[in-house]
Design goal:
The structure holds 2 protein chains of 2 kinds.
Chain A (H helix, E strand, L loop, with lengths): L19 E6 H13 L7 E5 L2 H5 L5 E4 L14 H10 L1 H8 L4 E7 L4 H15 L3 E8 L6 H17 L2 E6 L3 H4 L6 H24 L8 H7 L6 E9 L4 H11 L14 E8 L5 H14 L5 E8 L7 E9 L7 H9 L5 H4 L6 H5 L5 H13 L7 H14 L12 E3 L18 H4 L6 E3 L40 E2 L2 E2 L4 H4 L6
Parallel strand pairs in A: 1-2, 1-4, 2-3, 4-5, 5-6, 8-9
Antiparallel strand pairs in A: 7-10, 8-10, 11-12, 13-14
Helix pairs in contact in A: 1-5, 1-8, 3-5, 5-6, 10-11, 15-16
Chain B lengths: L4 E8 L3 E9 L5 E10 L3 E2 L2 E2 L2 H19 L5 E6 L5 E10 L9 H11 L8 E13 L2 E4 L9 E12 H12 L4 E7 H9 L2 H6 L1 E6 L4 E7 L2 E8 L3 H12 L3 H11 L12 E4 L8 E4 H24 L10 E5 L8 H9 L3 E3 L6 E2 L1 H5 L4 H16 L20
Parallel strand pairs in B: 1-6, 3-19, 6-11, 12-17, 17-18
Antiparallel strand pairs in B: 1-2, 2-3, 4-5, 7-10, 8-9, 8-10, 12-13, 13-14, 15-16
The chains are: A alpha/beta, B alpha/beta.
């Protein structure tokens, strides 16, 4: 008989506790800090960074840094990101001091205004420089705050994307999703803060909490690896009878998760299921099985579980993932793409993903076009092939990322026409099978390789882009029947989709 | 029993197959004996896509009708629809030979043949040639020229044609049952027979039959059919939209549409939700009423917009005096007349077959108006035509002078 020692539960692991700092930049960021403290985080780990002295004095953080003593003299930036940036530069040393001794730094900022948009990227850079893993929680302003503010926020977001390890972005417009329409506005804002604080707390707990299957820092890094990606986060907690199901639903419904739709495209997913001592294996199984339905077969699931006496009757699920640039479809371009008229949505859809891998590794854009054309030739689209070559590359452009990873999925590719000019063979080293005239269609796995920046390609917004959508345009019941095309529109596709009207 | 004829109308629809059995009385009224129904599978957008399944469903419906009306059904009038059916107006002209100046039946036949000498696509066959008006020597609006004197007889016909093989598919499906096909009738033509009174036809009316798979329309001006057509969008599309928009299965979506759907927007409190109970015991889903209504509204608005555009191609809508009559399953949607009124800018009503003796519930249900219309049509046809000669071939080349 082999004796097993049953000393699994709750060993003290002080020495492994990862030093964490949470930095709130700007007014919104400091508000979030207050919420985080309320939810039980240690004050000593919090740093409030702001230009506005008034907000700093009322903050509960243990460390406070006033930005731009000489620039703004204790007042705010007045909504100017440049002033925010200058103030941050001015106080760079103080900021750096507060960020030492941390391995994981969370930065909370509300983008759009002056301090948040201007200083947060700088602070993030300082945080990176100190060697820590940087996760940014950013909120985007309401649409009604005006285009200028949104533009400032977007610019800051882009910069943050390049600097931080992961950016979890929360759109204020989604606040409406969090609360009932009749709730008071303070409740709406409070809920937004709660969402952010939950995210911070759960990531912290994930790493620090004792676990049966532990998730380490390395797993977190793996899940958040893609540097330019968008981070998905979902947290759900329930203590009902059906708590596994409810918690997972809550996590998937989280607005930061975009309702679980993007999970299907993620490469790595980090899941932590935690509960009190009463948590059963079957509950965990149920939860993971259900989660499995939302993810792709090749997605790497990093699973961790822990039993924490403090949880009592609750069961919680934390889902963290990130989407690489190519996997994600950024929200804005998708919307604009939909508005452009569609000519053959269904016919073109299968064709679109195929040329993608071919285009990317090409040093010269020109020879690729025949290859791309071929791919589509074999679909039903016939005449406007030449026109399609342009938009096919344009759709890459619209994704708006300077460097990207090629799609690593298996993508079926139809072979090129036999008379593909030999010049195509030469540049296509990465996928030599493509250029050779091969009659059978085959699966091609493009290798990951450094990709040339695509700004060289002309930018053209063309009707074809919208097809590269995440939810394939489906005709539902009429999938297999002859489409009803009237006045150029496929009437089998739901009207609200074609008119791009959002229904919740 | 010769005076009480059994007339059976069969409509192979996308959502249901219905067989209506009626009796034509010598005084001209119709008594409904029974209605048989079966859910339709294998039919999409008004056309048969799965022959075997469709046949089974038709059989089921026929058996159901036989049981309910306690008769044996031998021959039926079949209604057809489908996006391939097109129609146009044409004028035929016949000049009487010099020795004669009285117009007789042969001339009427001739003018009809003449009107049909229009090129239609090779794969198409004529379904109906409906007389609108005759013109005798320049005198317009002649309803029955037989016996009149004149040199030149002209006639306006409304000609409906469709792809031959598709119509034959429907006929074959019925014949395999086995049932004899008396005649093939264009759906909205049949509906209009029972939905409109002669007075309304004279005033000018538009009948829109929104069924499961297709939306059919027919325009009457001055008592004659001026325009008709089919749009292959129907209740199924609404259900599909709901199913995709709210991410619920089709059957739930269908139920939701029928029970809670409304076309009017802004009618409910913000945040008002509908609780969808899950019968398997799991927690149900909550959806917003406004979302549901928005989806339905968008789709119906689009349908009506497309209809309006098609109708505006000819200017007959300017002469419609009695308004719009909406029938068919989807006319049961809440608020649909208001939407139609808004888009077409004329009064709109939901309508069903008018009062007949017999089953009240049957004729008050707009879903059956097409099938009941088939019976009315059959009656009119039979009263014109001497009984006896029937046949498959006649269906495609016959005279419907009595049908307006």
């Amino acid at each position: 008989m082999i004796q097993l020692s049953h000393n699994y539960t709750l060993p003290e692991r002080e020495e492994e506790s990862i030093p964490i700092k949470v930095v709130g930049v700007g007014g919104a960021g400091c508000n979030a800090l207050d919420r985080i403290v309320l939810d039980g985080m240690d004050k000593s780990d919090l740093v409030a960074v702001n230009t506005d002295v008034q907000s700093l004095t009322s903050s509960v953080a243990a460390h406070k840094v006033q930005l731009g003593r000489s620039v703004t003299r204790g007042l705010g930036t007045g909504g100017d990101p440049d002033v925010g940036y200058d103030s941050a530069v001015d106080s760079a040393d103080e900021i750096r001091q507060c960020l030492t001794d941390a391995q994981l730094i969370f930065i909370c900022a509300g983008l759009g205004g002056g301090t948040g948009s201007g200083a947060a990227p700088f602070v993030a850079q300082l945080a990176r420089d100190s060697g820590a893993l940087v996760i940014v929680f950013a909120t985007l302003p309401f649409a009604f705050e005006g285009k200028r503010r949104m533009q400032q926020a977007q610019d800051a977001l882009t910069r943050l994307n390049g600097i931080a390890n992961a950016v979890i972005c929360f759109e204020n417009d989604r606040m409406g999703d969090l609360v009932a329409p009749k709730a008071g506005i303070h409740q709406a804002f409070a809920t937004a803060d709660i969402t952010i604080s939950q995210s911070v707390r759960s990531i912290v707990n994930l790493i620090q909490r004792p676990g049966i299957i532990r998730i380490g820092f390395d797993d977190l890094l793996a899940a958040l690896r893609s540097p330019n990606g968008r981070c998905l986060f979902g947290y759900g907690e329930a203590d009902s009878d059906n708590r596994a199901h409810d918690a997972l639903n809550q996590a998937l419904k989280s607005p930061l998760m975009d309702r679980g739709r993007m999970l299907g495209d993620a490469e790595h997913i980090l899941v932590q299921v935690a509960g009190g001592p009463g948590m059963t294996l079957s509950e965990v199984e149920i939860l993971m099985q259900e989660l499995g339905k939302h993810v792709h077969d090749h997605t790497q699931i990093l699973f961790g579980t822990g039993v924490d006496g403090r949880m009592g009757n609750r069961l919680s699920v934390t889902i963290i993932s990130s989407l690489g640039v190519d996997e994600q479809t950024p929200v804005e371009p998708k919307k604009t793409a939909r508005r452009t008229p569609k000519s053959k949505p269904v016919a073109v859809a299968p064709a679109e993903p195929e040329p993608q891998p071919e285009i990317e590794p090409e040093p010269e854009p020109e020879p690729v076009q025949p290859v791309a054309i071929e791919g589509e030739m074999n679909e039903e689209t016939i005449a406007p092939i030449e026109a399609e070559a342009e938009p096919v590359e344009a759709e890459e452009q619209i994704q708006d990322e300077p460097a990207s990873e090629p799609v690593s999925d298996l993508i079926p590719f139809e072979q090129p026409r036999p008379e593909a000019p030999p010049s195509v063979v030469v540049p296509v080293e990465a996928t030599p099978q493509v250029a050779k005239t091969d009659p059978q269609p085959r699966l091609i796995i493009p290798k990951k390789k450094p990709v040339i920046p695509k700004e060289s390609k002309p930018e053209k917004v063309h009707a074809k882009q919208e097809v590269l959508q995440f939810e394939p345009i489906s005709r539902g019941r009429f999938e297999k029947s002859e489409p009803t095309i009237v006045e150029g529109q496929d009437l089998d596709v739901p009207t609200y989709l074609r008119k791009n009207i959002r229904v919740k | 029993m010769a005076s009480n004829d059994l007339l059976v109308g069969l409509e192979i629809g996308t959502s249901k197959i219905c067989v209506v059995v009626g009796e034509a009385r010598p005084d001209g009224t119709i008594k409904l004996l029974g209605v048989g129904q079966a859910p339709s599978r294998g039919v999409r957008k008004g056309e048969i896509v799965d022959f075997e399944t469709a046949m089974k469903c038709v059989h089921e419906a026929v058996v159901d009708a036989e049981q309910k009306s306690d008769v044996m059904i031998r021959s039926v009038y079949v209604g057809v629809a489908g996006s391939h059916i097109q129609s146009f107006n044409n004028r035929g002209c016949v000049v009487l030979p010099d020795d004669r100046d009285e117009i007789d039946e042969q001339d009427i036949e001739d003018v009809k043949v003449n009107a049909r000498e229009v090129s239609i696509p090779a794969q198409n066959a004529f379904l109906h040639s409906i007389i609108q008006h005759y013109h005798v020597d320049g005198q317009d609006g002649v309803l029955n020229p037989i016996g009149m004197l004149g040199q030149k007889l002209e006639a306006d016909f409304h000609i409906i044609h469709g792809v031959r093989t598709r119509i034959q598919n429907t006929i074959r499906c019925v014949k395999e049952l086995p049932l004899e096909v008396e005649d093939v009738v264009f759906g909205p033509l049949a509906s209009a027979q029972v939905v409109l009174t002669q007075h309304q036809k004279n005033l000018g009316a538009l009948v829109i039959d929104i069924g499961g798979g297709t939306t059919d329309y027919i325009v009457y001006v001055d008592g004659a059919v001026k325009q008709s057509g089919v749009l292959a969008v129907g209740g199924d599309h609404i259900t599909n939209d709901i199913s995709m928009g709210l991410r619920i299965p089709m059957t739930r979506a269908e139920k939701l549409k029928c029970e809670e759907g409304s076309v009017t927007l802004g009618n409910c409190l913000p945040g008002e939700t509908i609780m969808l109970k899950d019968d398997s015991g799991f927690a149900g889903k909550e959806i917003e009423r406004e979302t549901l209504n928005t989806i339905i509204h968008l789709r119906m608005r689009e349908v009506f917009d497309l209809l309006k555009r098609q109708l505006d191609e000819e200017s007959f809508m300017n002469y419609v005096g009695a308004g719009i009559y909406i029938t068919g399953g989807c006319s049961l949607l809440n608020g649909i007349e208001n939407l139609a009124m808004e888009i077409f800018e004329m009064p709109a009503h939901t309508a069903h077959a008018q009062t007949m003796s017999g089953l009240t519930s049957a004729f008050e249900n707009p879903q059956f108006s097409a099938a009941i219309g088939l019976i009315k049509y059959a009656q009119a046809v039979q009263s014109d035509r001497p009984r006896g000669a029937r046949g498959f071939g006649r269906i495609f080349s016959r005279l419907f002078s009595g049908i307006r």
